[in-house]
Amino acid sequence: GMLFTIGARPSIGKTAYCINLAYQITDLDSDVQVDYFTLEMTKREMANRLISRDTGISSKAIKNGFNLSSVQQEIVHKSVDHFKSRKIHVYDKTPNLSSIMTVIRRNAAKSKPYKYVAIVDYIGLVEVDRSMDRYMQVGEITRQLKVATNDLDIPIIALSQLNRSIESRMDKRPTLSDLRESGSVEQDSNVVGFLYRPDEIEAPNVEFLEIAKNREGSLGDIPYNFVGSKMLFQELKK
After folding, report:
1. Which residue of 18, 79, 125, 131 lies most exposed, with the fewest beta carbons within 10 A?
2. pLDDT tens across 185-195, in order?
């Protein structure tokens, strides 16, 4: 029954992070169904990224598959078969809120208790009533997502862009006021986390997930090593 929001600026790795979440969730429990709603990528692009996460072969190499060695091709084929047995469903043609909510409610009702997760990538691209201003639209999106988590007793993970103003600051650590377009994102979320790079020059692969809001627990930073070419987040010891 919780809404998790993960915010970041572009090119920080929001989608890659959620691909890792989907991968780890289904790896730990094959009975869990993960519905991934992608509003800026195709199913093929998402499949390439999932296979990259699974095999360690770069997503760029997988996209240009003719350049793979015979061994790599075999590894990719095995990964494809492996994912066919997992319950990761990617939706790339559900751009509006009503269609997303219809799928979530239908599939959550069919799933076993505590065996369903939805990921929405990302809030800023979800279409709602265009007669409303964008502030009200985002409020309606987060409200319906939160209501669904309570009604269906499921977790939903929503991705959000951060305001550009963060790029002009010396301190790149995001704050809750950096959430873009609406205070409802902060208000409706049980947990808000921010992905950011504390030092892009000296440590470009080190990222933190800052837990900035947590109704049910503590706050703090989780450090990761992010290998973008392999879609891999590896938790670091503090």
Report:
1. 131
2. 888 999 999 99
